[in-house]
Amino acid sequence: MTIKAVAFDMDGLMFDTEAVYWKSATALLARRGEIYTPELCAAVMGRPPQDCFELFKKTFGLPETWQELQQESEDFFLQFLDDGFSVMPGLFELLDCLESRNVPKGICTSSALRIVSEVLQRKNLANRFDFVLTAEDIVNGKPNPEIYLKAAKQFGVEPTEMLVLEDSVAGSLAARNAGAFPVVVLAEHNQEGDFSAARLVAHSLNAPEILELVNS
Fold first, then answer.
1. Mean pLDDT along residues 163-190
2. pTM of this prediction?
3. What does residue 8 show for φ and ψ, rounded to 5 degrees?
4. Does residue 188 carry a pLDDT above 90?
5. What is the pLDDT, as a whole number, of residue 215?
6. 164: CATH
7. Given 28, 60, 81, which residue is the final one in a domain?
8. How far apart are CA 177 and CA 156, in angstroms?
9. In this structure, what CATH number is given to the domain that contains residue 73?
10. Residues 63, 118: one domain?
11. CA–CA distance, 190 with 93 (Å, rounded to integer)
């Protein structure tokens, strides 16, 4: 196949921010005497804020609105972001490769714009992408294909001509449901995921099999 555009997820795929989300969710629930578990983390990974915090409300019987929980969680996230976070292995090499071939690229994330803007600004990477789609740009979050269908339209390509790089089960399903070519990149936080929806599973963003796809 010929790749005409590449859509990137952000958290856990481009940046090692899943640990920051873990700390913020842990702090949010600890304030209420509850515990954030790996099972709950797996259930919300890759999903938009409303889905995440409505699940928190249902699981723990929390009285706040999901929007109030989101705001508080984001405050924690930005606080913990000051401790630092790293770029995932191979990101810069893959970006350089795509730019050398003039392949357009965008970000399609379930995170809120407030979070996305801060993360990209801290790594000075916003200007390396043609566009960014966030939770505020969609009605139906991953695994619904809406965000990737919008991305393909914005790229001006067919979904079948778009490579999608993901790290979550919900994201890989969204890409497959859109008709795109889903590739999952494994890391410490997603080793146990069911990535049967992916066309390819790799171990870094500059894995030879990914570079071969974008260079074909």
1. 95
2. 0.91
3. -105, 130
4. no
5. 87
6. 3.40.50.1000
7. 81
8. 18
9. 1.10.150.240
10. no
11. 22
